[in-house]
From TrEMBL:
It comes from Kitasatospora aureofaciens. This is Probable RNA 2'-phosphotransferase. Belongs to the KptA/TPT1 family. Transmembrane segments: none annotated. Keywords: NAD, Transferase. One of its GO terms (molecular function) is NAD+ poly-ADP-ribosyltransferase activity. The keyword Transferase applies. InterPro entries: Ptrans_KptA/Tpt1, RNA_2'-PTrans_C, RNA_2'-PTrans_KptA, RNA_2'-PTrans_N. Removes the 2'-phosphate from RNA via an intermediate in which the phosphate is ADP-ribosylated by NAD followed by a presumed transesterification to release the RNA and generate ADP-ribose 1''-2''-cyclic phosphate (APPR>P). May function as an ADP-ribosylase.
Length: 182
């Protein structure tokens, strides 16, 4: 699979498995899973054929590990980032002392006023390292990295969950737990 098709296929799977399964006429179960054969048949019917080997390649080589197969390999889902309602079944986990969030500088005023909110997604996404947060922020403009006092949030009763691909998830981050990383 050439690089261009790999990227195009990954973006298409993100859109379908995170945001618009109806685009190809599939339904995700309550945990976000869909049978691989159902997904591949639906893609082919919509003129976007993908073989199982190509799907395996997209999942295996995605640098953000956005997708995962069920233990039996018969179903697939996105690991996080959904705008459709799913329950990933992630348990509450004690976070590291600090986490990071990448954003664009133009959003800082509202973030420091209202905190971090999930917007159209189910959760706020946080990173364990500044490099990842910087890459995320760069997608939205000039990147700014915010430090999240996750230890204080957890002590105050806020819940954190760790996705299969290493993204920390929480419902929201109130502004008092945020600071701008210098």
């Amino acid at each position: 699979m050439d690089e261009k098709r790999l990227v195009r296929s990954s973006k298409m799977l993100s859109r379908i498995l995170r945001h618009e399964p109806e685009l190809v006429g599939i339904t995700l179960d309550g945990s976000g899973w869909v049978r691989v054969e159902v997904l591949l048949d639906a893609l082919a019917a919509k003129g976007r054929p993908l073989t199982r080997a190509e799907l395996d390649h997209v999942v295996a080589t995605n640098n953000k590990r956005r997708f995962g197969f069920s233990p039996d390999g018969l179903s697939i889902r996105a690991n996080q980032g959904h705008t459709v309602a799913v329950d990933l079944g992630l348990t509450a986990t004690v976070p590291p002392h600090v986490l990071y969030h990448g954003t664009a500088d133009r959003h800082l005023a509202s973030i420091f006023r209202e905190g971090l909110r999930p917007m159209t997604r189910q959760d706020v996404h946080l990173s364990a390292d500044t490099e990842t947060a910087t890459r995320v922020g760069a997608r939205h403009g000039r990147p700014v990295v915010l430090t999240v006092n996750a230890a204080a949030m957890a002590a105050a009763g806020h819940e954190f969950r760790l996705s299969e691909n290493g993204v920390w998830l929480t419902d929201a981050v109130p502004p008092q737990y945020l600071s701008r990383r210098s």
